[in-house]
Amino acid sequence: MKIRWGVLGTAKIALTKVIPAMQLGQLCQVHAIASRQRGKAETAARELAVPKVYGSYDDLLADSEIDAVYVPLPNHLHVPMSIRAAEAGKHVLCEKPIGLTVGEARQLLRARDRTGVKIGEAFMVKTHPQWLRTRELIRAGRIGDLKAIIGVFSYFNRDAANVRNVVEWGGGGIMDIGCYPIVTSRFIFGDEPVRVSGLIERDPEYKTDRLASAILDFPSGQATFVCSTQMVPYQRMQFFGTKGRIEIEIPFNAPPDRPTRIFIDDGKDVFGSGVVAETFPVCDQYTIQGDVFSRAIRGDGDIPMPIEDSIKNMAVIEALFRAGTSGKWEELAS
Fold it and tell me: What's this model's pTM, rounded to 2 decimal places?
């Protein structure tokens, strides 16, 4: 039997990516959508063939037919709304970042333990075959000992009305996209960084971080990345070992309508003559994410990104913000 999902909000990611993808899942049924502006919910429901519409989040949470909710609201609403959903007995898949602080994430952990529901952060990359294969190859020693990870993630957006440019709502590049190289570096190293260094440039008008560079010092190596909300759209992740290198071509916004590739370099020469590509069949990481989470709700398997993991990721983000201000290495909060 499929898990019946409700969606709290009409964010673009929900309407254009997550809902259509979940509707293709084997275990997901998008049963309802809510917006504080009922007209938006009605339009979305009509266009996406969602059966039920609500003009408030609480009305959707009161629906006994809803098993779980997806929360794509602005960052500052993630924890408050997820707690309300948990207290209503709904399982919760919340968009990243899980909250604005480690303290907020811990509040959500307590709510999960108190209510007994499943709660996870929507890092869909952790379910995509290209990431699972990359981790498998590195753990098998294909590139020797992993020593360094290098990443870039950027786009250009100076729209004042966009929530990503509202600093009070958790806007800025680190929260929006810097969280991806952080979570995937932790995922691939299988460990936590012991300290963080970084540089942050803020938009003079919006005060959001528009350019950030980070170094994460892991026990067995280093991860560095650049993220920006005002730079050419680009993304790439590379993994360097003592004997080889792996590159993920489109690491984060993996397309749902074409195959994806990773490149494995045996280090033969700098011209790439030793590079081989592995291609992954067309899939939608949001479909996979929805089914994996739904399966966990049914008691079959684990949540891909549980709150304990989210707290650790938020600790790195907080340390990076501190480092960007202090100009010093910052250790992670315990």
Answer: 0.97
